[in-house]
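Reply to dn_fold:

You asked what the input looked like. This is it:
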Amino acid sequence: EAARDLPASQDVLALLEDYVDTNAPHSYQEEIEDHFWIKKIEPGKLWLEPLTMPNEVIGPVTVPKEVTEICRKMWDIAGVAVKTSRGWRLLDVWNVSP
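and this is what came back:
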């Protein structure tokens, strides 16, 4: 399982880095820098639980559909999520791990 998931998590990281580079929001109301557990996945949407705020799930967080086809529940995304007028978005991602 690890032999499959580790390379896949690095693919997700590369996809998210590219996505954030071109789609990061310029204005937002709230920022959470943390490790996030993936709690729910739908095409193009993730719901994330910040490690430092157990039982509080943010989302949906808009991501490329390809990301949601690869990633799995309970993977860890390290980065910054922000709440914009259009919902939750990723501002920065520096690691994804299964």
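The chain is about 30% helix and 45% strand.
Hope that clears it up.
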